[in-house]
Design goal:
Blueprint: H1 2-7, H2 10-20, H3 37-49, H4 54-58, H5 62-83, H6 89-98, H7 119-122, H8 124-132, H9 136-157, H10 164-188, H11 194-198, H12 200-217, H13 219-224, H14 232-235, H15 251-266, H16 269-278, H17 282-302, H18 317-326, H19 330-347, H20 355-369, H21 373-378, H22 385-403, H23 405-413
Helix pairs in contact: 2-18, 2-22, 3-5, 3-8, 5-8, 5-9, 5-10, 6-9, 9-10, 10-12, 12-15, 12-16, 12-17, 15-20, 16-19, 17-19, 19-20
């Protein structure tokens, strides 16, 4: 059965079945039918524009859910301006620098974008209205982060990412600030301790780990569309031009560059573990942990993988569902991190130029995860062959139905 092959390993297929049969309730959206029409519209835009965060945002507790939804949409609108190559620089730079001021302009919108997410700019008055309906402590955070991010984006419009330090700086502007802003929102909601919002170093690392993973994974798509986010300091050691890494004859050099960048990204994992260890609210923990375990699974898939330079690299559907269902407590997250670190370790080549650095950071992660091999083995479920076979068949038959779940949820939000 081709569908079984596409879903992945037996344990993942079983988890798809379990997810369909009710396991999704722990991480899927909590629908609120009492929302205003403008707020329902905001959630509609959230589900239309977010590939990965919509479900976990809608599963957040209380008023934090709305604050994070609006925060996401404001930054999505800002990011849409940055990404739109049809906007001339003399117009784009001041837009980015001043974008935070549009939050307090009732009628401001932008109707000239050609980007796929342009509706968040065209209907920005709906988003800014809901922004102004938030409590002051949330508005202050969102406005501040929007301002700082816009200035940073404008700075990098006219220069390439050169050094590894500039890579960190760029990722700080576009993702680290998101981590800092979210952490301040968590604390402002009183669902988390004030220290979570104050420790900007750990919050920044949370964002950098996700952003670097995306940049590494999206090499081919970005280079084909004329975007360059891999730092020159890294790729210039292996090729004359960034796009040359996609040439078949450059594969060995390309993999060396790829592994160097994966190793750099892995340096944020100890901070990720420290950050997640501080969280106390279950919905906040799920919101933060799920993208992080998805990221380390993605890095493990990317490491030393020629497909990064030839096509699309992504984790399996069953793998993603398994991660969503399991990453709900710190012990499970540490186990997942240790597992994927071990997978990377087994792929490290004797001749890779970054070998020693890779082995070192993996050892640090293993120490931080503080898991024994017996803990790793205990993660495997012991199921009878007959039960597992039945679960595989049922999961395969129900997958198409499961795939419509988010669409139904999206429809319900606008009823």
């Amino acid at each position: 059965m081709d569908i079984l092959k596409s879903l992945g390993h037996p344990e993942e297929i079983f988890n798809l079945f379990k997810f369909k049969m009710g396991g999704c309730r722990a991480v899927m959206p909590k629908l609120d039918y009492s929302m205003t029409e403008s707020l329902r519209t905001c959630y509609l835009y959230l589900n239309q524009t977010s590939r990965s965060f919509a479900a976990v945002i809608q599963a957040l507790d209380g008023e934090l859910r709305h604050a994070v939804c609006i925060f996401y949409l404001v930054l999505r609108a800002l990011d849409t301006v940055e990404d739109d190559m049809t906007i001339p620089l003399d117009k784009k730079v001041p837009m980015l620098n001043d974008f935070h001021t549009f939050l307090y302009q009732d009628e401001w919108c932008f109707t000239e974008s050609q980007e796929k997410d342009r509706q968040v700019l065209e209907d920005f008055p709906t988003i800014s209205l809901e922004f102004r309906n938030l409590a002051q402590e949330y508005r202050d955070v969102i406005s501040d982060i929007c301002h700082r991010m816009g200035v940073g984006m404008a700075e990098f419009l006219e220069k390439k990412v050169g050094s590894m330090k500039e890579w960190d700086q760029y990722c700080h502007y576009v993702a680290g600030l998101v981590g800092i802003g979210l952490s301040r929102l968590f604390s402002a909601s009183q669902l988390e301790d004030p220290e979570v919002g104050r420790d900007t170093e750990l919050a920044n690392s949370m964002g950098l780990f996700l952003q670097k993973t995306n940049i590494i994974r999206d090499y081919l798509e970005d280079t084909q569309e004329g975007r360059a986010f891999w730092p020159r300091e890294a790729w210039s050691q292996f090729a004359g031009r960034l796009e040359d890494l996609a040439q078949p004859e450059k594969l060995e050099s390309a993999l060396s560059c790829l592994n160097l960048l994966v190793t750099d990204a892995l340096h944020h994992v100890p901070d990720v573990i420290a950050y997640l260890s501080r969280l106390r609210n279950q919905s906040v923990f799920n919101f933060c942990a799920i993208p992080q375990v998805m990221a380390i699974a993605t890095l493990s898939t990317c490491y030393n993988n020629p497909m990064v330079f030839q096509g699309v690299v992504k984790i399996r559907k069953g793998q993603a569902v398994t991660l969503m269902m399991e990453a709900t407590n710190m012990s499970a997250v540490q186990t997942i991190i240790a597992q994927y670190s071990q997978e990377i370790l087994h792929k490290v080549s004797l001749t890779d130029p970054s070998r020693e650095k890779t082995l070192h950071i993996l050892a640090v992660i293993r120490e931080k995860s503080a898991l024994s091999q017996s803990s790793l083995r205990s993660r495997t479920h012991h199921l009878s062959p007959m039960y597992l076979s039945a679960a595989m068949v049922l999961a395969a038959l129900s997958w198409q139905y499961l795939s419509t779940t988010l669409s139904v949820l999206n429809t319900a939000l606008v009823r």
